[in-house]
Amino acid sequence: MSLANKVVGAAATTTRFTTSIGRSAARAVLAAGSTPPAKGEPSIHSGKSTVAGAASMKIAYTATPTVFKQQRFMSGFAAGPGTEKVPSFADYTKERSSDSSRAFTYFMLGASGAVLTGAAQSSVQGFLSNMAASADVLAMAKSEVDLASIPLGKTVTIKWRGKPVFIKHRTQEEIDDANAVNLASLPDPQDDASRVQKPEWLVIVGICTHLGCVPTTDSGDYGGWYCPCHGSHYDVSGRIRKGPAPLNMEVPDYEIDGDKLTVG
């Protein structure tokens, strides 16, 4: 038996002994009709009962052991899986209805969308401003030509936005030949009237639609333009008639005001 078990057993035996003696003394005092004195006080009664009481109290003082027990504080919550107790924060939250929550959500979505839209607009505007053409480029965006200086049947080449532009003063015979072409025989069918504003003036971008070469003027099998690089032939309306070029030559934006031609 361990020392701790021996101490506990001795304390229990002494406690039972002291309790039995105390009970005997109490019965003797009650039989004599007197009150037992308090611990540590002298008795005011005489006789055997007083002596017996004093003796019993003396025995109680000397025989009663003092047992110290360590007090442990334990939680009242159960332990183990599934026994977690989550505190409630209901007293600290605001009561909100579904309508107010929905309105707040819509407000936040709308505000976020407005901020993002403004940021996107600012970014796009700044990007476009940086990508805009400079003043010298804008000055070259339009080209003006005096049509009175171009003789009948001649072709003039000008530069517009870095590209060559052919301006041809056509004769009546050339106009009739352009209108007499069967459109079904053309690789890129297009009538002559849709390519000119005035029949006597043809304005086209002088770049071959095959690989970007510049055709020669008044040459080829159809009296218009010929690209010697790969053998593309264009007529007096700038339409492809033979060769690898897939499309007609481009017609730029232009305006004719009297004898002034403005390209661009």
Give an overview of the whole structure.
This protein has 264 residues and is an alpha+beta fold. Helix content is 35%, strand content 16%. The chain is built from five helices and ten strands; from the N terminus they run ααααβββαβββββββ. The protein has helices spanning 3-32, 48-63, 98-131, 135-139, 172-179, and strands spanning 143-146, 155-160, 163-169, 201-205, 216-217, 225-227, 232-234, 240-242, 254-257, 260-263. Strands 5-6-7-8 form a four-stranded antiparallel β-sheet, with no helix packed on it. The protein has a three-stranded antiparallel β-sheet with strand order 1-10-9, with no helix packed on it. Helix 1 runs antiparallel to helix 2 (48-63). The protein is elongated. Residues 14-19 and 38-61 have low confidence and may be disordered.
* Residue-averaged pLDDT: 76
Q: Which strand-content bin applies to the residues?
A: 15-25%
Order of helices and strands: HHHHEEEHEEEEEEE
Structural class: alpha+beta
* Cross-sheet strand order for the largest sheet: 5-6-7-8
User: Spans with pLDDT under 50 lasting ≥5 residues?
Assistant: 14-19, 38-61
**How would you name the oligomeric state of the polypeptide chains in this document?**
single chain
Rounded to the nearest angstrom, the distance between the terminal CA atoms is 116 Å
Strand runs, count: 10
Envelope shape: elongated
- Helix fraction, binned, reads 25-40%
Count of helix runs:
5
Radius of gyration: 60 Å
